[in-house]
């Protein structure tokens, strides 16, 4: 099967074409006003390069940051909220917490729905799903009249305890579809049927906020692909690391919010397994952001919740909470387009603001005047201006130098070289701090791991980041510059269903649990079989359990079979075993309760063949030499090697630059670089290499 993977980022749109015999890659500037334009242009160009026609494609896989950007930039729909009477302000009240209790100037992220567009209906359902106050038809029509007068484009319906009984939400959704057919509707009982009113409402509102934007874009893209005679299935990457169908993505676009970064984590996990590396730190640096993920035993950490649009970096609780399946990672504004500036205290800072693809860094010669990280790398000689993005975008070193001098160097009283080194150092320190914090929050250590670095910017900074973190081994994958898109090709088709149904373990209702699981299985199967065809499916089940009275749950795996009353004892043992792993002790004889159930169906993950270093060591001759400003501020001529010309087993001794179409790898003094059997670059400190022999 010929497959095309497309990843839209804030700066570049990446492409990987798998013909079954070889891979082709391409990187184009994103077209923010109409993202599908870059997608179609890249698809046509890459297929022509491989001498293929659009009709030859067997599969298109797509991931994008458009949903994330719509929330961060507040460019979503004119959205309204329908809530239960008395709960109009749940988004503003939130959980009543302060993410920084000592900051008297604390600013929380503004809700996606202002108060004047929040409406209520008189109804009430209790936590068991019993109707305490019926919802009258006249009440539904009254609130629809208010929605119409407010010019609402998309509606989130999130009623109290709608997860336990969705009858009222369904009635409102049906009536809106009849009276306002052009208004998109998101029901909390479908988007996020879980306990915790604030998180459920926030997730449903986010889905409603991005749904018209994403639905319009995805339909335009599907239509444009159809006009090219592309007739194959079209899948979307989700934040949980699986693929979903176009229809499911249009209904639940909130699940696409971290789709691009998820592809990178899938790639790093596959490479970790192929190399036999048990503890890995995935480092994905693109044009706008950097993403860091912990991977243990070949599996990335996953979560049921995360925050978007944080108002304070690294501060939990400062963003909008979303409860969706997601690969756990930290994302910061540290990319090639991150802008360097001087703050009010006269300090050099980098990001989170980005120059994006338009106008881009100053060296793009597209009107940008602010110096960015890419400008610093061009000035320092780490990037060949003639070969950037395979020569499609000629960079102007003089413009980079001019921007650094005008905006940074003169204000700090530094030479341009020192200012450029400072920009690189700051962005590397920001990424180091993010990695340390992310690991520490999970009781882990970043040092001693293997760093797997990809994305257009990561190979330029990977060695320096590794040194700061105490990491001695780095892997730069083949096609590192388009790593997330490559990861899409490895992802399985998958869908996870999560529902909240309270159950005490002492009063364990096996029949009720089995009815719930059958319903969840059928829901997941409808989505997955829409794309998986006759592929064999793998199922996993879990329960979210806690001791009676606790505020948060832990995940406990369930057997893939019908449950029986006797499973009460095995569930207790499984919970206590997991609880002891996490906290070092259990609470004997305490009551246990189940709040939420999950079921996932997935096809098999595509494996990467085992890899390693060839027995025979080869040498290579440099293709050129380039003047580089080293970290000490002195200038030196570094050899430049073209990555495509390095044979398997080739070993290079730093300092050196290894250039390719999509990125450049910096190999500093003290490191060696070796090509693996699968074309990856393996960087090691020379002292480590000698001691391992």
CATH top level assignment of the domain at 74-209: Alpha Beta
**How many DSSP-defined strands?**
35
What does the average pLDDT come to?
91
- Low-pLDDT segments: none
> Whole-Å distance between the termini?
42 Å
Structural class: alpha+beta
**Share of β-strand residues:** 25-35%
- Helix percentage range: 25-40%
Largest sheet: 9 strands, mixed
In short:
The chain is α+β, with helices and mostly antiparallel strands and 693 residues long. The protein contains 17 helices and 35 strands.
Give an overview of the whole structure.
- This protein has 693 residues and is of the alpha+beta class.
- The strands form nine sheets. Strands 13, 14, 15, 20, 23, 24, 31, 34 and 35 form a nine-stranded mixed sheet that branches. A six-stranded mixed sheet has the order 3-2-1-4-11-12, sandwiched between helices.
- Helix 2 (66-72) crosses helix 7 (197-227) and helix 12 packs across helix 13.
- The two termini are 42 Å apart.
- Helices cover 32% and strands 26% of the residues.
- It contains 17 helices and 35 strands.
- Among the domains are: 3-71 and 215-256, ATPase, nucleotide binding domain (Nucleotidyltransferase, domain 5, 2-Layer Sandwich), CATH 3.30.420.40; 74-209, Dna Topoisomerase Vi A Subunit, Chain: A, domain 2, CATH 3.40.1360; 494-602, Dna Ligase, domain 1 (2-Layer Sandwich); 624-691, no CATH class.
Topology:
Elements: E1 3-8, E2 12-18, E3 23-29, H1 35-49, E4 59-64, H2 66-72, E5 79-84, H3 90-93, E6 118-121, E7 124-125, E8 131-133, H4 137-149, E9 154-158, H5 167-179, E10 184-187, H6 188-191, H7 197-227, E11 234-237, E12 243-245, H8 246-251, H9 259-275, E13 279-285, E14 290-296, E15 299-300, E16 302-303, E17 306-308, E18 320-322, E19 326-327, E20 330-332, E21 338-342, E22 348-354, H10 373-379, H11 397-412, H12 416-441, E23 450-454, H13 458-469, E24 473-476, H14 483-488, E25 494-504, H15 510-532, E26 538-547, E27 554-558, H16 567-583, E28 592-602, E29 624-629, E30 635-642, E31 651-653, E32 656-659, E33 664-667, E34 671-675, E35 681-685, H17 686-691
Parallel strand pairs: 1-4, 4-11, 5-6, 5-9, 9-10, 13-23, 23-24, 30-32
Antiparallel strand pairs: 1-2, 2-3, 7-8, 11-12, 13-14, 14-15, 14-20, 16-19, 17-18, 21-22, 24-35, 25-28, 26-27, 26-28, 29-30, 31-34, 32-33, 34-35
Helix pairs in contact: 1-7, 2-7, 10-11, 10-12, 11-12, 12-13
């Amino acid at each position: 099967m010929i497959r095309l993977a497309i990843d839209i980022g804030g700066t570049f749109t990446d492409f990987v074409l798998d013909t079954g015999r070889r891979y082709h890659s391409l990187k184009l500037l994103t077209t923010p006003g109409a993202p599908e334009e870059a997608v179609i242009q890249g698809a046509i160009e890459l297929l022509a390069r491989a001498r293929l026609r659009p009709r030859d494609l067997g599969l298109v896989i797509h991931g994008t940051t458009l949903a994330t950007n719509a929330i961060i930039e507040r460019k979503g729909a004119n959205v309204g909220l329908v809530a239960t009477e008395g709960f109009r302000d749940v988004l503003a009240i939130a959980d009543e917490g302060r993410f920084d209790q000592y900051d008297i100037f604390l600013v929380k992220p503004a809700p996606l729905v202002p108060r004047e567009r929040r409406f209520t209906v008189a109804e009430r359902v209790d936590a068991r799903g019993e109707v305490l106050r019926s919802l009258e038809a006249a009440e539904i029509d009254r609130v629809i009249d208010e929605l119409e007068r407010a010019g609402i484009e998309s509606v989130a319906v999130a009623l109290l305890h709608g997860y336990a009984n969705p009858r009222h939400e369904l009635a409102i959704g049906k009536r809106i579809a009849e009276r306002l057919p052009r208004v998109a509707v998101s029901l909390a009982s479908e988007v996020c049927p879980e306990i915790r009113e604030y998180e459920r409402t926030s997730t449903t509102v986010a889905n409603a906020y991005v749904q018209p934007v994403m639905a319009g874009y995805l339909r335009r893209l599907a239509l444009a692909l159809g006009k090219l005679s592309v007739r194959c299935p079209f899948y979307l990457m989700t934040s949980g690391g699986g693929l979903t169908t176009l229809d499911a993505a249009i209904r639940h676009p909130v699940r696409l919010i971290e789709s691009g970064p998820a592809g990178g984590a899938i790639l790093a996990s596959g490479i970790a397994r192929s190399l036999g590396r048990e503890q890995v730190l995935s480092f994905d640096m693109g044009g706008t952001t950097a993403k860091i993920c912990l991977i243990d035993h070949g599996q990335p950490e996953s979560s049921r919740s995360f925050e978007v649009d944080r108002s304070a970096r690294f501060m939990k609780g400062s963003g909008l909470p979303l409860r969706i399946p997601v690969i756990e990672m930290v994302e910061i504004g540290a990319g090639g387009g991150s802008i360097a500036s001087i703050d009010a205290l006269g300090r050099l800072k980098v990001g989170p603001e980005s120059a994006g693809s338009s106008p881009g860094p100053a060296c793009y010669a597209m009107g940008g005047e602010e110096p960015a990280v890419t400008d610093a790398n061009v000035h320092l000689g780490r990037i060949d201006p003639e070969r950037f993005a395979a020569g499609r975008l000629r960079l102007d070193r003089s413009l980079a130098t001019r921007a650094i001098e005008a905006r940074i160097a003169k204000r700090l009283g530094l030479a341009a070289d020192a200012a450029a080194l400072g920009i690189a150092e700051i962005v590397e320190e920001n990424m180091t701090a993010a990695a340390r914090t992310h690991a520490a929050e999970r009781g882990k250590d970043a040092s001693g791991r293997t760093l797997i670095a990809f994305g257009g910017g990561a190979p330029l900074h990977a060695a320096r980041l590794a040194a700061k973190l105490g990491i001695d081994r780095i892997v730069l994958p083949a096609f590192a510059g388009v790593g997330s898109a490559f990861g899409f090709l490895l992802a399985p088709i998958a869908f996870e269903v999560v529902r909240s149904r309270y159950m005490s373990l002492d009063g364990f209702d096996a029949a009720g649990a089995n009815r719930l699981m059958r319903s969840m299985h059928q829901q997941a199967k409808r989505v997955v079989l829409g794309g998986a065809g006759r592929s064999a499916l793998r199922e996993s089940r879990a329960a979210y359990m806690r001791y009676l009275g606790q505020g948060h749950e832990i995940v406990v795996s369930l057997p893939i079979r019908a449950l029986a009353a006797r499973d009460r004892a095995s569930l207790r043992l499984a919970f206590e075993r997991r609880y002891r792993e996490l906290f070092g002790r259990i609470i004997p004889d305490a009551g246990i309760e189940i709040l939420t159930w999950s079921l996932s169906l997935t096809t098999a993950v595509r494996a990467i063949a085992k890899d390693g270093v060839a027995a025979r060591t080869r040498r290579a001759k440099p293709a050129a030499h380039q003047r580089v400003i080293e970290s000490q501020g002195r200038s030196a001529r570094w050899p430049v090697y073209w990555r495509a010309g390095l044979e398997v087993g080739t070993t290079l001794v730093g300092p050196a630059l290894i250039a390719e179409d999509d990125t450049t790898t910096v190999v500093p003094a003290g490191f060696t670089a070796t090509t693996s059997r699968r074309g990856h670059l393996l960087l090691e400190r020379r002292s480590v290499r000698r001691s391992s022999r």
